[in-house]
Amino acid sequence: GTQMKIRIPLYAQQLNQAEFTQLIATSVDTLKQYSSSTNDPMVTDLIKQLEESLPLLKKSLKQKRGSDMTSDLNKALKNRKADYSAFVNGLKLFKNTRTPEKLQAYHRLQELIKLYKNTRSTNMQESSALIDSLLARLAKSSYSEDISLLMLDEAVANLRESHESTYRLYLKRSQDTSTREKINSLEVRKTALKQYNLLYSHLVNKISYNPTVPEKVILQVLNDIRQDFSERTRQKNQTGTSTASINIVTHLPQGKEM
Fold first, then answer.
1. With the CA atoms of 29, 33, 34 and 37 taken in that order, what torsion angle do they form, in degrees rounded to the nearest 10?
2. Which of 73, 103, 137, 219 is the residue whose CA sits 20 to 30 A from 171?
3. What global pTM score does this model have?
């Protein structure tokens, strides 16, 4: 029959963490289905080790999402800080106003802000509670008139908006418990790759030495998976030159082309 290709290259270092996890997950699923085709203790043991490394790999992906959330939260905090400063600085413009009612409004708001000096506190919950309370008081009619008089409506609206989105992100991140457990993603990946490569090389050697061993079927399915992943990597590297991947016309239900 046709000579099977024994070794299929895989450019593992070019796979991102999600793709690598998918490679291992797919391989493990397949290996479990074919485990009866071997009585080689090394193969059996390595399949078991790979299976055990999967949960950690998956956790390292959740952790990545957690750190993305943290950077979103930091951006939101920066915006809130800027909006708070814009409000305070907008108020300062009326320090020397000659209009008596504007001056009174300035002093009333200035007194109020003094109570909230600690909004720059490093503690997220504390500063959020303070800004929450400040916004609630600014919404009361006595202060909201002062705000309109000093044309600070937009500044307050901006602060309210950035405060709300900061708090939403903060809650979302606290609920994402995966950020509590620190996992060294690089180590987890290195271990899994080492087990995978050991298993693959062992099968390649075994079948090169004797093409009739029952493990041949295991190597074949692993090679199909490798083929698929190296093809994907090749397409990723060629983006921009491959016409096949660009010239895709999607037909929407209305029959309009996208």
1. 140
2. 137
3. 0.56
